[in-house]
Amino acid sequence: MIHESARRFAFPTWTRLARPASSIRCPKFHTRKAIGGLAAIDRLDASCEQSEPRSNPIEPNRPEKAHHLIQRFCLYGFLKNQRYFEPFWIIAFLDKGLSFASIGLLIGFREISIALLEIPTGAIADVVGRRWAMIFSHVAYVVAFLVFGFSSSIVAIFVAMLAFAIGEAFRTGTHKAIIFAWLKSQGREREKTAVYGITRSWSQAGSAVSVIIAAVMVFVSREYSAIFWMSAIPTSLNIVNFLTYPSWLDGVTAEKKSNVVRLLLEGLRQCFFQKSLRRLLFESMGYEGMFKAGKDYLQPMLQQLVLAAPLLMFLDPIRRTAVAIAVVYTAFYLMGSYAARMSGTASERFGGEERAAGNLWVAFGIAFLILLAGNLTDTLALVMASALGLAGLQNVWRPILISRVAKQAEEHSMATVLSIESQAKSLGVAGFALLLGVCVDWMPEAYRFAPVGLMGILVALLALVSSPTGTRMLSTRSPIQAVQQRGENRSKPLH
To answer: Which residues contact 314 (CB under 8 A, 6 or more apart)?
Structure first.
């Protein structure tokens, strides 16, 4: 159930699938016919705002133009993911002389630093203002990218990674809290999964664009330093974007300013003593941690397979690797962009977010099984298929998980709770990164990347076996039953 202002940022098929939120009492939205053209959507937005203006709880006389804010949320995600180093992250560090174990240690250091900073920075964001927390995080990113680009010293790289961790700690959870606070102010809390999915899809589209730009830079320069410092430019532009957000989204009140410790303790209490939230933290550690730690190994996997295959033999190894990574990672992020938009539909099809999560865990294990088979048989097609599958699954999973967490959290401490969730994810990434780095270095050359697939399968099995609902999490409904259920939901009158 999605408001028209959110529909305009999705694929054309989304317009046919989406329906307006039941909380909107504008008669023009009660039609089920397709709405033609963006201008028509703008007129509907405007007419609804005139007939029943919405206001936020902090500044009650300032209704916000819905699609303008969603545009800025989407722009944030697009610019945030202009990280040109990401597709070459592992290869660039190998080029600087680091081993896989050293890279695992570096990534573990980053994630542990994020974990240590995550909860206090989330509480600070709730107190000093979420916009200013985002601005500070992007300043830290700029510092990190410049040091990565212009230095090869291992000490400097660790310092840059600490700055990167500070940026991540202030960012993660904070922007989601901004989006969810705005949705609540508009009476659209039920659209968390859909709206977050749309903004996430723009992030993934930004990643696809950044892969092409990065590949061109590597192809032309035949080295990796530029992809780091060039990433500082779009990051700086995002700071300007934050300054255009309405100030009331900071969520700052006099009470919050005097109660940072209370907010921190309240967020911790919710996460560790509320059984449903505690389960979600462990799911985040497993699913997000393994995905994020494992996906970086796609870079050396592709490099190894492409250089061993008779492909693009007229190019030198660096350029062959750049072309292969550009093709695979562009498809990877485009798949993620599409999947993020469909997270709301997936949740509905499987009969709710809990059942959808169970099915996603099964698919997660299957994808890593395919990856293992591709590594053991040196089959590039299987590795690519697994990469695309994991991209789609994770980008359906993430909006569903965040919506599940947001439903359990109290609004006044939401940034703190979401930061704790992100901290759990960081701890998962740190553990898996260190373990994978050591295992990959110790494995024989022929089976070097097999631990990635094996560990992914093991995590999925543990998640399903330890689930309190067991196999009941899995959807047993047929597609026909799912369609019938959606039809029954649509037949219900809007109030």
So the answer is: none
